[in-house]
Design brief:
Layout (H helix, E strand, L loop, with lengths): L1 H12 L5 E2 L22 E4 L18 H8 L8 H9 L10 E4 L11 H11 L5 E5 L6 H10 L3 E6 L4 H8 L5 H14 L5 E7 L7 H9 L5 E5 L18 E2 L5 E2 L11 E4 L4 E3 L11 E2 L5 H5 L2 H13 L5 H4 L3 H4 L11 H13 L3
Parallel strand pairs: 1-7, 2-3, 2-10, 3-4, 4-5, 5-6, 6-7
Antiparallel strand pairs: 8-9, 10-11, 11-12
Helix pairs in contact: 3-4, 4-5, 5-7, 10-13
């Protein structure tokens, strides 16, 4: 009764309700096939840490540490503030801006205590007007919220793993008070600036039958956008329900034919905690481009190594590359505007023509 009263009172305090729509940035997107190859990346993905305080049963952290290291080269490394600054400086170019900087990774970003400083550096650099963090929210104390807000964070995205304390224990293996989580989220929501956003989502596997409405009732009043995503077989080695089909559904609910060409590698660049760089943000790291302590981010992005990878992706598809063959990102988290399959040969011709013209 006390919990329901809390939610009811907060609902009365806020007239507007959250939008029920996917948390991906789908506003003002251009058709990717019309603009690639890109001389400058759209998105910079940052892995603040490989560590996580959860062991969600659909995530790679459900695996033991030995398997994480041998299969994914995952250990307990954190990204240092100095290495991040080197990477950020390596993306600076007069008049160029990233569309977004996303602090995410295969761990819990808030475990890295330098995260607010990284966000502040990003926003003060002028390299983007949009920085976001994707977190499980368990470490979002009022003090942490104040630091994130002060740093200028644009969007805080929180992945909720259930609507009860018992469900958190079942899904994540942790004893988390759902009431405490709600209280901390409400603090951020009520203290953030007007230009800052709070998005909340959960995965369908974190809800029991009949929990969908409860999820919306609980978090609608304290978020700007809310959504239930479909869990997909993201990690090789983690058990998922099989659902073979001639069409697939993304985590956002988009129905489409299976994609052969992977869109993210054409507009994303990622730094991992050790300073290593890849041109996609998946854990499979299909092509190691170098380290920010040896080359600048733009040198790596504009390298022949990247161009050759793009040509191979367009010509042969993702299954041609061992790291990509096991990855479901093209079908899981790519949006319809990013589909490249039908335009692959045209893009390849454009790339070859640009090279012939010395561009």
């Amino acid at each position: 009764m006390e919990f329901k009263l809390f939610i009811w009172m907060k609902s009365l305090q806020r007239c507007k309700m959250a939008e029920i729509k996917p948390l991906s940035n789908n506003e003002n997107r251009v058709r990717l096939a019309d603009v690639v190859p890109l001389d400058y990346p759209y998105a910079f993905y940052v892995y603040p840490t490989n560590r996580c305080n959860f062991k969600c049963n659909y995530c790679l952290h459900a695996l033991d540490k030995e398997t994480l290291k041998s299969r994914y080269d995952i250990d307990d490394t954190d990204l240092s503030l100095n290495t991040f600054e080197v990477a950020l400086n390596g993306l600076k170019e007069d008049g160029r801006k990233l569309k977004s900087v996303i602090f995410v990774g295969q761990g819990e970003p808030l475990l890295n205590r330098d995260l607010p400083a990284m966000i502040s550096l990003t926003m003060r650099s002028g390299i983007t007007e949009h920085a976001e963090v994707i977190t499980n929210g368990s470490l979002l104390t009022p003090d942490v919220s104040d630091k994130l807000i002060s740093a200028g964070l644009s969007i805080l995205k929180i992945s909720v793993q259930g609507v009860t304390t018992e469900k958190y224990k079942s899904v994540c293996g942790v004893g988390l008070s759902i009431n405490k989580l709600i209280s901390n989220i409400e603090y951020y929501y009520s203290h953030k600036l007007p230009n800052q956003q709070m998005y909340i989502k959960t995965m369908d596997v974190a809800l029991d039958d009949g929990d969908e409405q409860l999820f919306f009732d609980m978090f609608n009043p304290i978020s700007d956008r809310i959504h239930i995503e479909n869990v997909k077989p993201v990690y090789d080695g983690v058990a998922y329900k099989e659902n073979p089909s001639a069409v697939v559904e993304s985590r956002y609910g988009d129905i489409h034919r299976p994609r052969k060409v992977c869109p993210p590698c054409f507009f994303q660049i990622t730094i991992f905690p050790d300073g290593g760089v890849c041109h996609c943000e998946t854990i499979y790291k299909p092509q190691h481009l170098g380290n920010v302590n040896e080359k600048t981010m733009l040198e790596m992005w504009r390298s022949e190594k990247v161009k050759d990878f793009w040509r191979g992706m367009l010509k042969y598809g993702k299954d041609h590359f061992p790291g990509c063959a096991a990855c479901c990102a093209p079908d899981d988290c790519s949006r319809p505007e990013d589909t490249l399959d039908d335009d692959a040969m045209q893009i390849l011709t454009r790339m070859n023509g640009d090279d012939d013209n010395g561009q």
